[in-house]
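Worked example

This section walks through a single chain of length 265. The input is the sequence exactly as stored; nothing has been trimmed or padded.
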Amino acid sequence: MNEQKRAPKEKWCFGIGAIGKDAIVNLVGAFLMLYLTDTLGIAAGFVGTLFFVARMWDAVNDPVMGMIVDNTKTKYGKFRIWLIVGTLLNSITFVLLFTTLGIVDMKTKCIYVSIMYILYGMTYTIMDVPYWSWLPNLSNDPREREKISVIPRIFASLGGFIICTFGLNFIDFFNRIAGDTTILQEQKNGSTLNISETGFTYCAIAIAALFIITIGITVLNVKEESTLTVKSQKTNLKEAFAVIIKNDQWVAFIGLLLTFNLCTQ
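Given that input, the structure is written out below as tokens.
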């Protein structure tokens, strides 16, 4: 049985984890297109197609990860272990997404970026699904759950606001720190900001470090009971795919894809 009340420390430590995870997702959401097209010089049509395919895969990936979490039984619980694994893997792929490792050939660069972006989405799901699934399991008291749910959303909004508002300034700052004088510029509020690859890479490293620290605070301070002795009905792959088929988002994407293919034949 879940605890009726959580100590204030646990509530705030759980919420703090949302800062880093939403800082990551907002850097990708707000600036990845800019990075791929303006900084790396990849065609916008290719980037748009990549984003489209990734969203389709997410429609499959999310419920499958939910099934995996639900069937996890360890002495550390079923959320904490995946939160740790997902955070570490996502931090690595997130940084790799914002560096080309010196690749010059455009075709190879496109393949590399595609792999990293798909892996980024998959590893983010490994972390994000257990994080938000843990929330309703923190208490069996509806009022207590409502109070707790406000805290991570506040921190998530804070992380998103900081990155969306000052992201370009951070990228420019890291370019200057690294001494990168590459002439790649973006105008913002009358100022000229450097958006070369070095700044994106260093900014991604800094955010990944913040991500690991904030999730670490959550993992170390929020209690979770062992699930080794918990009896529950397991969800199999067949049932998971049945959920996927009923997913409105997935059905809508399939419809759009078919329409696009028919119109371009």
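What to look for: The mean pLDDT is 85.
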